[in-house]
Specification:
Oligomer: homodimer
CATH architecture of chain A: Alpha-Beta Barrel
Distance between the termini of chain A: 29 Å
Radius of gyration of chain A: 18 Å
Strand content of chain A: 5-15%
Largest interface: A-B, 16 and 16 residues
CATH topology of chain A: TIM Barrel
Shape of chain A: globular
Largest sheet of chain A: 6 strands, parallel
CATH superfamily of chain A: Metal-dependent hydrolases
Number of domains of chain A: 1
Number of helices of chain A: 11
Helix content of chain A: 25-40%
């Protein structure tokens, strides 16, 4: 049987078209971002929007909460949608909102987006002071209820401390090795070594700013990078986290980068000359192109079992052990 | 086997002492009020407080969501706590919050407290205009997700329209027949007839203002009233909803009555001379006294099966068919 296919990060401008493309690409589960800078009540509004989509398209999607929901998705020909935050703003200053959010189905939370948060330091700050006092308490609470610590946008020391402090494996849902492409959002060897040594997962990003050569990166380059990473850290800790932002207007990347925290314009990984979303590589336009990656992995020399793991089964094992309460 | 024992309304000043008294009284499930006038975020804070109690006293209480949780409570010697609102304030002006609240475990919502709400008219208003436009939409949404319409504090026309409009049986969780004691909060024959004809449930209140003779009402009077009501409407539609407000300071009854809607003082069922909580009758001080009611029902001539129903099994059947989604 084909592996379960999982994408560990997307933030598309959701529509029936995209849900149908998930089915075309055989994608059984997607971790979707439901908050960048939104506070609690605003993030609840985003859940409400998802609840309306679940009601409108019950034959295409449903709200996923457990690893078994990925299996149910496969069995029923649908895609399980898992909620996550790219910033801890939805818990505001209230640690008890971690459990409330777990009850509402959130399964991933980044301790920071690009900036300092109440919990840790983002990868664009000048100084990284590691986990804050509240950060340590919130990691313990996330461990207790079964919400995954995601450090995709965090700075190195904060990430290393989260790996060390967390009693359960953490994730970097969408980034690539900095040794391959030294983007600020890509991850150092030290981080990837500590992450995978602790049983954590890396999701390879297909966002052009994270790719060597950007939009022109070839499928072969991408899959060779995966092969090199597998050799260094172990194939079982690796999966896909595409960071696909399909059909979003450029105003959305401006919101991601600027939220409500600045009056000057922040261009993040872009620049004044190139402020918008970069075009996707031709071999990964959207969810329909997941089979291209599986083919590229064959050419990169992976075995069928390894490809099954990379395309989703590694994430599925991680989902199985991450989303339940620590008491079992 | 003894019936499952259910109290369909309490709003105590919760403590370990009270949770232990629930066990002493053999109470398997309690519907607890988590909002009087609180808006969405404030009510979430109340859930957070309950989550801390569930974590602190896992051997005494847990969060109930289904009828089977009442059975689990009995099997494990604990009390299942079901959440409900006495006012629709926790959904504010947002119908999609009904589903959010169901996800967070709320299972009952009154369409009004004493005043006009966005949904219907409360029993203290001069004019009752029935269900509002939003009220009809919200009843349909509550029917869809499995949240019980509770009309305990609503005016007659609004209650009759809710019974008529709701596709699923509704409840009056805590009130007595006005024919027995004509308090404003007690219910007319027309309402009780329509309620029970549609399969709905009445929970008998032990709040002194709802009792003939108030605090001095005897157990025999109370149980004779139950017998008369059973004869008129059918014993299977009846249970207990004690309205127990144990250990609350009088500031809480002031909050219940006044919320943030008035600058003058409203005394509700009390008066300037008698503004506080009235003392409970000696035979129903708190959860430990549920066995007294069961004994009183024997003396009132009920059969063992009927007593099982009145003490909780009627509510349990209602829970079984009310808390799941309408799609099954």
């Amino acid at each position: 049987m084909m592996a379960h296919r999982i994408d560990a990060l997307q933030y598309a401008n959701w529509s029936e078209k995209i849900f149908r493309q998930m089915r075309e690409g055989g994608v059984d589960a997607v971790h979707v971002t439901i908050a960048y800078h939104e506070v609690f009540r605003e993030t609840v509004l985003n859940v409400e929007a998802w609840n309306r989509w679940f009601q409108a398209y019950p034959d295409l999607i449903f709200h996923g909460r457990t690893g078994d929901d990925v299996r149910l998705a496969r069995e029923t020909g649908r895609t399980a949608i898992f909620f996550g935050f790219q910033n801890p703003s939805p818990i505001e200053d209230d640690i008890d909102l971690v459990e409330i959010w777990h009850q509402l189905g959130a399964r991933f939370m980044q301790l920071t987006y690009n900036n300092q948060s109440l919990l840790a330091t983002g990868c664009y700050e000048d100084d990284d002071t590691g986990l804050t006092r509240m950060g340590r308490q919130v990691v313990a609470e996330m461990n207790r209820v079964g919400m995954v610590v995601d450090m995709s946008h965090s700075a190195d020391r904060s990430t290393l401390e989260a790996i060390e402090y967390s009693s359960r494996p953490i994730a970097i849902t969408h980034a690539n090795p900095a040794d391959w492409h030294p983007a600020r959002r890509n991850k150092s060897h030290d981080v990837l070594k500590a992450l995978t040594d602790a049983g954590g997962m890396l999701g390879f990003s297909l966002y052009p700013h994270h790719l060597k050569g950007g939009t022109d990166c070839t499928l072969a380059d991408f899959c060779t990078m995966i092969a090199d990473t597998a050799e260094r850290y172990g194939v079982e800790y690796l999966g896909i986290g595409s960071d696909l932002c399909q059909d979003q207007p450029d105003s959305v990347v401006t919101w991601m980068r600027n939220g409500r925290w600045t009056k000057a314009m922040d261009f993040g990984e872009g620049s004044a000359d190139n402020p918008g979303f970069p075009p996707q590589p031709g071999w990964f336009r959207d969810n329909r192109d997941f089979p291209n990656i599986a083919e590229g992995l064959i050419d990169a020399g992976f075995s069928p079992d390894e490809i099954d793991g990379l395309m989703g089964d590694n994430w599925l094992r991680f989902f199985d052990r991450s989303f339940g309460s620590a008491d079992g």
